[in-house]
Amino acid sequence: MSSEFALIRRYFTRPPRHTDLAVGDDAALIRPGPGMQLAISTDMLVAGTHFFADTDPEGLGWKTLAVNVSDIAAMGARPRWVVLAACLPAADEAWIAAFARGFFACCEAFEIDAIGGDTTRGPLNLCPTIFGEVPTGAAVTRSGARPGDDLWVSGAPGRAALGLAHLRGEVVLTPAWRDDCLAALHRPQPRVALGLALRGLATAMLDVSDGLLGDLNHILELSRVGAVVDEAALPLAALLEACGDPVRAVRACTSGGDDYELLFAAPADRRTDVADLSARLDLPLHRIGYFTDTAEALQLRGHDGRLHTVSANGYDHFGQGA
Amino acid sequence: MSSEFALIRRYFTRPPRHTDLAVGDDAALIRPGPGMQLAISTDMLVAGTHFFADTDPEGLGWKTLAVNVSDIAAMGARPRWVVLAACLPAADEAWIAAFARGFFACCEAFEIDAIGGDTTRGPLNLCPTIFGEVPTGAAVTRSGARPGDDLWVSGAPGRAALGLAHLRGEVVLTPAWRDDCLAALHRPQPRVALGLALRGLATAMLDVSDGLLGDLNHILELSRVGAVVDEAALPLAALLEACGDPVRAVRACTSGGDDYELLFAAPADRRTDVADLSARLDLPLHRIGYFTDTAEALQLRGHDGRLHTVSANGYDHFGQGA
């Protein structure tokens, strides 16, 4: 094991920038700024469940951190620190070096200090815990959506699902879109700048990790509201171009996970602000529906204008029926 | 998976006491007190590596948290919050209920809020990340030991190693000691009160998780000092009574891990303070050696009074040769 410790130390010790005591002691020491709350999240990535065991380790390093950064972004917080616990089947230096490259590329991209961790031997399992800062009271939770608020989503969710379908041989993507969809799958871009800009504007927010309609249910549940999603407003153009299959495109957009786009509620009288933000960040923001006072009822308005109820687990059925 | 989510929610959602936002959103929100640093540590427990897959889940729940609490104690910090990521092979309600009992028993014992987590399906792996508070500048690190400081250890380290040897059929323990040693192995008692009391008294500290001499090397390395350990001063009485084998007793005490006793340095002119503390906490504290100015040199003074050098990995050799 000592060679493994040495490898981990060599590849995972970088000078921290805003940390009192980092890797090497019983615990790391940090201080959030005055008036700040800490936002804390953990997301475990398991070989065979979340990724193929032979996944490119550099991409995996990026994604392991990026999916956690996304949770912090979804609170409107700024990512600051991370600890990484890793269970590795072997001390494979090339693998560790590539993983570290991807992991620290994501640290650099978002100015995150890696402040500690733990390594052990066993089935491949990566478990980062991430810390963000947000001014006390400014975090955007899942529980603040109000009837009448608009429902927005960033980017073009569903590209990661098409990338995965491509890897599984279930779909043929055009070459240009194949690269785009695989990048969405392997190198998701957490929407940190958007999350920060939505403080004071969004009333509720989360990141889409399991699928748009399924994740939307979490907002409905915690905000005790309902929602209507307008099928005609879904950002399907890119997905349609990529796979040429309208049914698959709708299913990828509404049920596909792993894109880490932000889904948020905002007051209807703030539409201009959201549009300005979209322009400023050069990031498409799509108004895809609105919230209602029918607690936890999720409805889809089809192209025919009729409302279809989507049951709690109904986004799968919806996908099949579309 | 939804039944698993429901199970986790049922057994792992408890009202927090000092947390702004706990389980259920993208991230938890906490605020350390004014003038406080946060001490953060993560320790992953993997089936087959750290425990037998058929280990009693209630004990495992306790230990999963306790070994992390111990890292916070070893900084002289007060444990406050924990997030738990868990990879489980199946949604076994009886197992989850028992694990949660043990985990929350440890939360209660140390007034810790469980504020979030993640559950996934796969090989059994438990990954808590724990947060403690300590007044800024008051943490006891591994790097402050000075030549001339005394070397102290709490309790009777080695009992957990004897318990493990008993389970493996390598040793026969007397019935009374068998229960004691198995309790040390399965229900370690992190020394939180001791760690807090040693602020301003200990100059360096860590918890013994891998073995006394091996872990002592971490203090020598970070403090750039040497140490002499006096074999005659080691707390061997209980171990000898338990197993009746002097060689095994010495090896368990110096190389056995998993007891989570605290190993610390303190100035020689503070011996009375340490003795008073021992009496106040009703916890034996043993002065087992002293620090020297020979950087990273670890020596053992045998019963014959002669000094033997212990190499970096030498505690194994020592154990065999004693």
Structure description:
Chains A, B: Belongs to the thiamine-monophosphate kinase family. The structure is a homodimer of 322-residue chains. With 322 residues, chain A is an alpha+beta fold. Chain A folds into two domains: 132 residues, PurM-like, N-terminal domain (60s Ribosomal Protein L30, Chain: A); 160 residues, Phosphoribosyl-aminoimidazole Synthetase, Chain A, domain 2 (Alpha-Beta Complex), CATH 3.90.650. Chain A has eleven helices and 13 strands. The radius of gyration of chain A is 20 Å and the shape is globular. Chain A starts with a helix and ends with a helix. The C terminus of chain A is likely disordered. The interface between A and B is large, with 61 and 61 residues. Strand 1 of chain A pairs antiparallel with strand 2 of chain B, so a sheet runs across the interface.
Provide a concise account of the structure shown.
Chain A is an alpha+beta fold. Chain A has 11 helices and 13 strands. Strand 2 of chain A pairs antiparallel with strand 1 of chain B, so a sheet runs across the interface.
